[in-house]
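For the sake of clarity, the format in which proteins appear in this thesis is described at this point. Each number in the token line that follows is a code from a learned vocabulary of backbone shapes. One such record is shown here in full, so that the layout can be seen directly:
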Amino acid sequence: MAVKFSHMLFGAFVLLFVLQPCVIKSLKLDSLQNLEQVQKGGVASGINQVKQYLKTYGYYPHGVKLTLGDRFDHSLESALNTPSGFTVNGVDTVFARALKSWADGSPFKFTKNSNSDIEVAFYSNNHGDYPFYDPVNKVEAYAHSFYPEIGRVHFNTLYTWSTNPTSRQVDLESIDVHKLGHTLGLEHSGLKSAIMYPYIDLGAIKRNLTQVDKDGLKAMYMY
């Protein structure tokens, strides 16, 4: 099963303010305004300066070559689409651990490539499918996901994500393991200790599959 990791936030201009305030102080305003207007593949004055600052502050994935120039290329897109507080490699590591939890508890194997069955991304509320906010129950979801064969997992950028959450942060791996369960076809469980239980508090960590989670997958796929 192939997995695609794409990390999308509010857009390039806003994301720069989220990532590093010290970067913003050193970048010229016209560089940021030019970046806001250009799309991937386009060229605009000042993009080269943005690339160099993002490279300096660790937002380029390990092994991705910095290509100088004012073209909005794939490597710049990867750097811009990193959630606040994470590097690209850090996000990928969390998602890889979440996938491993399901791989260890089932016969499934996951590989990372561009032709994917599961796609993981960060979005703001209005992002083209159903919103994170539920006006009936007045609840803002941490994330939402889709059952097979759509297999998309979208994380809500309204929340502060962490791998070591405080009482006001959300544990990225805990939510990812839960949402990946939905992409594999599982519904919610009534067992509070189960990964597929529908509720988790801010600051809580729950990353390990229970036997109920494993049995649910086994019953569904009959292996």
